[in-house]
Each structure stands twice: as C-alpha cells, then as structure tokens.
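Morning F.,

Quick status update on the modeling queue. The single chain you submitted on Monday has been processed. Sequence for confirmation:
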Amino acid sequence: MQPYFFPYLGYFQRAVVVDKFMFFGDDNFKKGGWVNRNRILINGEAHYFTLSIIKASSNKMIKDLEIVAEPRNRNKIIKSIKSNYFKAPMFKEIMPLLEELISDPEKNLSLYIESAFRSLCEYLDINVSFLRSSEIKIDQTLECQDKVIDILKKLEVTEFINPIGGAALYSKDIFKENGMKLNFIKMKEITYGQFGNKFVPDLSIIDVLMFNPKEIVKDMLNSYEII
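Structure tokens below.
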C-alpha cells in the first residue's frame, strides 16, 4: 500500500488480515490523493486536513518527498482536531497520542506516515511485519499488475490480499498462473455515533478513535470479508 496519512479504518483492516504489510513508497506522488491528506468531522461534515509538502510533484516518488519543516504546518492540524473533537468521548485518551504522532519532527514524508501508522497499529494491538518497497529492487519498467507479481515473487509470497477497489486491476487467474492466490478485502458496513448527527463514513482513523473505546475499535477491525 502507498503510505496514507492517518488513513480510514479499512486501511488498518488490511494490516490485521496479512502477515506482511509493505509500504510502497516507490510510486509517483499523486496530488489530490490520500498520501498527505485525509478527512475529519467538522460541523457534521467531512473536511480535509492536509500535510504540506515541499515541491510536491507527480514526477517525484513518494519516498523522496519532504514535509514542510515549519512547525505551523503540523500545529494547524493539531489545532483543527482539538477544536472539533474536544467534546468527543475518547478525546482525553487519544489526543495526547495523536499530538505526539503529528508533532514527529521527521522530514521524510514516507517515513513520517509510516511511523504514525506503526504506532497506531501498536496501540490497537495489530501484530504484523512491516516492509518497505525501497528495501528490494523494483523493476520500474513493469506495469501495475506485473510489478506487483514481480515484487511478490522476490518476497516468496504465496498469497496477496488487496483492497476491494483493486478488483478491476488485478486478475485472480493471472496470479494463479504465477503460483499465487489473490483475494480482496472488503470492509463491512460500520457505523457509530458522531455527536448525534447523521453518520459520515470513511473518515480518518482519527474520527473512529475519538468516538470509540479501543476494544470497540478492535472489534471493528475484524468486521470485514475476504472475497
């Protein structure tokens, strides 16, 4: 998976179901994606919060990008979370952890996001081995599916689990021809209270943690189906 900034619950579910989770930073950055931004609840609606990047460009790989060093960049995100969730039931428990992760001085975008994700996985008792795409030699001349298969062969992987959104990109038959099993993970419908307003789905994990005790979140992480 590309490293995503405080991703939604479904991203974490993939870490629950696999043995090895790879951060794929050897991909071109896409503006308007989820690498450096996500959404939280503001006045009952979804609003983006964004991590500013130095000279963000689709010609650069994610692993080569750096975060704007100015502390105001991170402080703005912290202030927004505090002002919109201070009445949430789990605010006092989870805000110190979020503030620590967001304030991380790491400049490399990929490493910064990876560190936050690892810490949240530890908090949620998700036990998985983490890998980085930069640790292996990747054939950048290959197209999407062929590139994934090549990586998996180098890692001697026999089963690959992809988010359901990739069903149109990957073929189970082609994976089988290469000695691998391909499955997709789909998050079941999950709802919870959000200040008594109409539920807004697929927000950052920040929203989930603000409204739900840790044990409830862990139950949510197991609410998926493998297709």
